[in-house]
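Good morning C.,

I know you're traveling, so I'll keep this short. The sequence:
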Amino acid sequence: MTDFKRIYATQAAAYEQMVAREDYEGNILPALWGIRPFTDQTVIDLGAGTGRLTYLLAPPVHRIIALDISFHMLGVARERLGLADLRRPARFVALAAADNRYLPIASQTADIAIIGWSLGHFVGWYADWQAQIGQALAEMGRVLRPNGTIIILETLGTGRETPQPPHDGLAAYYNWLENKHGFNSTWIRTDYCFASVDEADALTRFFFGNELADRIRRDNLTILPECTGIWWKEVDE
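The tokens, ready to paste straight into the viewer:
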């Protein structure tokens, strides 16, 4: 089983190289924009990692605060965002270390709280994952202004052309979001495009494991299909 905590604590550069190849057709941003326009909004990006969503969302927003529990990941995010042309002064982007369940943000200060590929790990890390994720959802709701929006992105299968939760735990989590908490949902393709089979192997094996990387080798894949789910909900209070 992949040790994601170790990867996030020690392999941020490799992780950034991998996700830089993801969603090569650019489907994420239009899908998010279809849920709610981000222009001039104040956004909190939880579990921001190396700043992948922060980078996408920063140009049109009023302000974006990127949070992650890993200082190691935030170090790469800081470098990437510092070098990127975001067409906004640096003061519009802020980074800070924080646990998703305990946000160092004042109540009702943001319009959108977004979290990508983060809460799903709680299913494997905590026996009481509903309580742990519930605490994170409550914090996201707390920091939002009335009519703010929570947006969650999670995997629906890397290596798959049609959406399916990778295991029963994630299926239970996704059903819980929809049936217990009233989230809407949709899905998109976020395929990876690699320069070569060797690169695809090198940038996926450490994260997704031997089975997928061996398939990449066997089938000579440079385009790796992937499905991503998006869940969203408007917070009334």
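Safe travels,
E.
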